Amino acid sequence: MSSSRIADAVARRRTFAIISHPDAGKTTLTEKLLLYGGAIHLAGSVKARRAARHATSDWMKLEQERGISITSSVLQFEYRDHKINLLDTPGHQDFSEDTYRTLVAADSAVMLLDNRKGIEEQTRKLFAVCHRRRTPIFVFVNKCDRAGEPPLKLLDDVETEFGLRCYPVTWPITDGGRLLGVYDRLTRQIHLFEKDTHHGSKQARTRQAELGSDEARQMLGGTAHDALVDDIELLDAAGADFDRDAVLAGELAPAFFGSALTNFGVEPFLNHFLQMAPPPGPRPSTEGMIDPLDESFTGFVFKIQANMDPKHRDRIAFLRVCSGRFESGLVVQNTRSGESIRLAQPQQFMAQERTHIDEAWPGDVVGLHDRGSLRIGDTLSENGPVHIEEMPRFSPEHFARITVRDPLRRKHLDKGLRQLSEEGAAQVFYATTHAGPEPLVGAVGRLQFDVLLHRLKNEYGVEARLENLPYGHARWVTGPRDEIDRLGGTAGRSLVFDSKNRPLLLFESEWTMRHTIERHPDLQFHDVAV
Ligand code: G4P
After folding, report:
1. If you measure from the C-alpha of residue 28 to the centroid of ligand 1, how many angstroms do you get, rounded to a whole number?
2. What is the helix (H) or strand (E) element at residue 216, kind and residue range?
3. Is residue 121 over pLDDT 60?
């Protein structure tokens, strides 16, 4: 295999996720990206197909009951010269650890904001994960077809709250609150949208002109043109120059304005994003940095989805390729177990369809059928044992005591909990009681509990019961053990142990947690366990 094939494949790839709060427009934007990528021809079909698929599996039944999306899927499509892997993240309030883990597999992230709401709770949580990994972030301010907060205020909020500088690449052109188009500061072109008669189901048609030209003035009218020229002068005078290195370091966010619903601003965003976002880069491992251009294959499992097909009860392990070329039938080693595995029947996710694939390249995500030998965080490699950065466990925000209705099934419960926690479906902790260790489950989103109960019943024959606990915050703790033990029994706190016997302190309120952290400088508190 020539290394230039790998280099070419890597240069063309962009693997990213959209981070947003529910209702900001992630589904709509995803659909529009697929529309521009030619993967679908009429927007509106993603939601329709999603609904049509509902009948096909137990998961989908659960999704339908709750009216939400549990699983994060991976969409691959082409746009111009690029291969895009869009890692979709569950978008309901009840999101799960999968949402976080998906971000570890992404090379960049698009922070989608509603122009009336700006930064919201879930944006904060997802941003924190990206920021920790220094993931390059792009901001897309959505719903600009209707009046919202002033554009500068929205970007100022991102800078103030996240410490992330923004560089507006496009700027909304409005007239009396109506969105006429966007101005592209890098090409100095005005994109004026033609009246949309397809309700956003087809690509938006635009007319373009240079900002200072007579044509631009004619197109916009004097008032809107003057206002735009003033805005741009202000932006140019106040802000620094565009600096791609700062973008790649996760210190500067290119910002875009638009409306996913009407397609306004989607195309300039996509064009710039593909130029500015990084291709798959090196990943840290136990053997040093793994270069995507290495000829030998490595990849890691970031998500396992069980029971997609109820007839086969199969599990799909999602593998992010980090280096080399993946090919169907490749024999690799699982570093954790030492097992050799032949990667048969790999699948890829093209738009909404699953298709069989023969090869994949760094940045791609491959779905592997798994009978239980893979776990989240496993590294698979063609040449010798290497372990790619550990998949962290994120501190849960919901806790419940779990008991089994039939005490004779306790062993099954323990087995189910052990396997499901290894798989990452929920986290299991043990509280010390006079009757012995008592299991608790923790989750990042409440929906994980429903999924857990559903799977315990269907896969392990265990009818379990949950009793919610009042803790909403947790930190793993390291430091002098007697000090940690003393904290456990105090008001508003509880000490439990994870499956690796690491102590975790649970707090009833954020205030208690902050107070405890301040009062115990000898202890270290961690929001992820590695
Ligand atoms: P999500 O995946 O982030 O949860 O959001 P989704 O795309 O489902 O969008 C949430 C709502 O916001 C939808 O309205 C959608 O039509 C609307 N929306 C998305 N982008 C834009 C935009 O650019 N401008 C405006 N004005 N609205 C937008 P809905 O009424 O809840 O659903 P639907 O009946 O339209 O599907």
Report:
1. 6
2. helix 214-220
3. yes
